[in-house]
Each structure stands twice: as structure tokens, then as C-alpha cells.
Amino acid sequence: MTEGQLEYGKWWSGFMWDHFVTLTVDPHGGRRVGRAGRCPRTPAGVAKAMQNEFHRLLTKLVGGRVPFVGVIGLGAGDNPHAHLLTYGTAAIPLDRMARGWRHGRVTVERYDPMKGAAYYLAKHIGEEANWEMSKTLPPLRSGALITPYSPNSRIQCQTDAK
User: Fold this and answer.
1) Which residue, among 111, 113, 131, has the nearest Cα to 121 in the 3D structure?
2) Which of 42, 102, 116, 158 has the fewest C-beta atoms under 10 angstroms from its C-beta?
3) Strand-pair category, 19-24 with 130-133
4) DSSP bridge pairs for 108
5) Contacts of range 111-117, beta carbons closer than 8 Å, 24 or more positions apart
6) Which residues are registered as beta bridge partners of 145?
7) The pairing of beta strand 145-146 with beta strand 80-86
């Protein structure tokens, strides 16, 4: 990982995420593939579907904002996929969240900061991957000290997690 990727991993790991989600596009078409009858085939298409369909459903299910960070890139065979960290989704059953993605395979896991999902997302930055973050951020984990990011300064994050 580059120094910049590590900085993002540290920053993102300081927040209280609820789920780690992977959204993969089925190269042969997903189930009920949208109003236009087709799957997103580009990272930009996956980002749009993630925002307009998956994230919108989560927002509807929780009845409010769902802070998130997502990295969208190309996987094996240039198949687009997204990795997300979400907050505010703890009460949604995993299988209900999984049904919210109709363009292919979805994996939903409870977020465990010890597994390094925040760093996993960060390692994709700069590898021709797009990333998006909601305007609203989740609360900080206990003991996390984060200074706000600006393009002219480095992200600082320290936690007391052992």
C-alpha cells in the first residue's frame, strides 16, 4: 500500500461502521436488472446503481441517512464491483440487505474493525478505482482521534484499539 492509501485506511477505520458489503455485477445479467433491462457494465454504472438503488433502499429501510464509503473498480475479467462500509444499518437483517442488489452477487458482513475492511477499501484507491463517500459521516469509534482531511494536509488517525 502507498502512504496515501494507508492514510485513507487509518481515517476510514476510525469510524463506527456497521457492515462491509461487496456488490458484484453478474457478467451474464442479474435478476430484474433495472428499468432499462440491463446491468451496469462500467465502474460509473455500478456507482450509479449503488447510489440510486442499493443506497436508496438502505435509506428507506432505516428511515434516515446511511453514511457510507464505497470503492468501485474492476475485478476479474474486467467485471465491475463495489466494496462499501455502511453505518446505521445494524438493524437490517443481512439477507434483507443482500436482496437490495439485483445486478449480480452481493456479500454482506457485520463490520469487524479487526479484519481491516477499511484498509481493504483504501488499497484500491489509485488502481483505476473510483471512490465515493457520503456527505454525512458516522460517529467515531471510541478513542479515535481524527483531524479533518484537506488536500494540503495529511490525515491523522489514532485509535486505542488493541
Assistant:
1) 131
2) 158
3) unpaired
4) 21
5) 111/17, 111/18, 111/19, 111/20, 111/85, 113/13, 113/17, 113/141, 113/161, 114/161, 115/20, 116/9, 116/13, 117/17, 117/20, 117/83, 117/85
6) 158
7) unpaired
Task: Quote the cell numbers at residue 108.
Answer: 454482506
Single pTM value for the model: 0.80
Polymer length in residues for the chain? 162
* CATH number of this structure's domain 3-7+16-139, picked from the four choices 3.30.70.1910, 3.30.559.30, 3.40.50.150, 3.10.20.30: 3.30.70.1910
Q: How far is Cα 41 from Cα 111, in angstroms, rounded to an integer?
A: 28
> How confident is the chain (162 residues) per 10-residue block, as mean pLDDT?
87 94 79 55 84 92 94 81 94 93 91 92 79 88 57 38 38
Q: Is 39 helix (H, G, I), strand (E, B) or coil?
A: coil
- Rg for the chain (alpha carbons), in Å? 16
By DSSP bridging, strand 106-110 and strand 145-146 are unpaired
pLDDT at 110 (0 to 100): 96
- Give me the residues paired with residue 72 across strands: 82, 130
Delimit the domains of the chain by residue range. Answer: 3-7+16-139
Q: In which element (H, E) is residue 74 found? A: strand 68-74
* 3 state DSSP class of 84: strand
